[in-house]
Amino acid sequence: MSAATFPAQRPMRQGGSMTLDVAAWRRDFPILARRMRGKPLVYLDNAATTQKPKAVIDAIAGYYQDTNANIHRGVHSLSQEATEAYEGARGRIQRYINAAEAAEIVFVRGTTEAINLIAQSFVRPRLAAGDEILVSEMEHHSNIVPWQLLREATGAVLRVIPMSDRGELLMDEYLKLLGPRTRLVSVVHVSNALGTVNPVREIIAAAHAQGVPVLLDGAQAVAHRPVDVRLLDCDFYAFSGHKLFGPTGIGVLYGKRAWLDAMPPYQGGGDMIKAVSFEKSIYNDVPHRFEAGTPHIAGSIGLGAAIDYVGSIGLTRIAAHEHALLAYASKRAREVPGMRLIGTAQEKVGVLSFVIDRIHPHDLGTVLDCEGIAIRTGHHCAMPVMQHFHVPATARASFAFYNTEEEVDRLFEAIEEARRLLG
Amino acid sequence: MFDLKALYQEVIIDHNRHPRNCHKLADADRMADGFNPLCGDRLTVYLKLQDGVIADAAFEGEGCAISVASASLMTEHLKGKTASEAQAIFDRFRALVMGEEEAGTGLDKLVVLAGVKEFPARVKCATLAWHTLTAALKDRREPVSTE
What is the ipTM of this complex? Predict the structure, then answer.
C-alpha cells in the first residue's frame, strides 16, 4: 500500500488514521485480546480500574527479575539500583503533574490512603469542635468517610456543596458555604459516578481568598486530562496508580512542600525516621516521613512506566479520542427509548452513567456480561449521588483511549437485547 | 455463548413484570427488612403464622428481576409450610443457585432460578428474599444485609 493511503503524520483530524492509532494502542494491552463468554472482551469499566499495557507489566516483572532489593540505606549495588528506580518513579510523577520538586510526591496505597493521611496528619491537629470541612455532593465515599471519622473524634462539622440535576456543583452555594470556620475544602476533580469535570481553579481561588487550603481527589482525572498542580495552585492532590494504567496498591499524594514540612508523620516505622532511641525519635524529611515501612517498590516502578506510556501517546490525543467516544455514545443514548443519562454536565470525561425504564442496572450488567461487555452497575461508592437522582443504582460505561466506536456499537446492540428481553 | 434465556426464563420475566403477593400484609405477625448494598435492592418480607404454619406471605420492595422474581416465587411456595420446612427449602434453594446441587428436589417452580449458578455475582440477588425470610422467622428487628 502506498504512503498516500496510509497518512502517518498527525492523525487526529482523519478518522481512518485515528482508528489505526487505536488499533496500535490496543495491541499494547494483552488483556484486550481476551474473549469473555465466547465474545471479544469489550472493557468499559475504566473508571473502576484501567487495564495495564505490556510496558507496565514488563517493568514490574523486570524489577523482580533483575533489580529486587530493599531501598535506601543499602550499601550494596542492587539496593542502590532499586533505590534509583523507586526515586526515578517519583521524579516521573513530579514531572507528570508539574510539582515543584520530587519531595512533594508521597507514595501511598491509593487515593483513599492519601485522603486519610491528610485527614489525620494535616487537618486533625488544626481542628476544633465546630470547625468545618467542606466537601461536595458528588464525592466518592473515600472523600466522605475520613471526614466523618474526624467529625466523631473532634466535633467538627461536615458541610456539603450541593449540585444541580445535571450534576454540576452550585458555585453560588459553595461561596456561601465558605466561611471563617472552614478549615479545608476537599472536592473531587472529576466525578466517578457522573463524569463531571469540576471548575477546580475557581474552587481553589475562592478558598484561597479566604485562606482555606484545598485537597483535590484526582483519581478520575489524571488518566484523562493534563493536570498541573502548580497551575491549579491546589494544596494537595491525590490519585491512584491503577486508574492510570499502573498497578493496584500504589498511589500518590502531592502536597505543597511548606504544608508537608509542617505535618507530623501519619504512620510510624522504618524509613520515616533519622534516629530512634527509646527516649525520642527524630523524624525523616519529606516525603520519606510519610512512607513508613518498606513501600510498594514494584508498584511505584510500574506507575512510573505507566506515566511514560501515557506520555508516549499524549494526554491531548487521549482527551480528544475519549471526547469523541463520549459524544458518540451520548448521541446513541438519546435514541434509546426510556434511557436516562445520569450526569449531563457541560464539562465531562468519558463516563456514561444511565438508567433504563423497567430494567434494573444489575440485570443489564448481566445481559452485557453475556456479550463479553464489562460495565459497572451499582452505586459506584457514591451513594449520595444516587440519592440526589432518586435511583438505587445506575449502569456506568466508562471509556479509556483504547476503546473504539465499534465497542460503543456493541454496547448499544446489547442494550437493545436487554430491552427486548426485560423491558 | 451462554444462553441468556437460561437465566431469564419466561417464568422469571413474568414474575418480575407481575410479582405475586407484592403488597403489605396488614395482619402480619412477622416482618423483616432485607438490603443488598451491592445493588441497592431493598425488600420487606411479611409473614402470617398460624399454629407454626406460614398461613400467608408477602413482600414489598424494589430490586432487579432476579431478586423480585425470587421473592415472588418464594412467597407462593411458602404458604402452608412450617418454619423448619421453610428453612430446609432455603438450604436446598441456596445449594441450587450456588451450583452445589443439581436436582433441586422438592423446589418445584423455584428451579427456574437454577441459571443463577452461572453468575456468582447474582447469587445474592436470588437469596435476598430468603435471607430476609429467615430474619422474619427469627423475629429479628435489625435489617439483614447480604454483605
Answer: 0.90
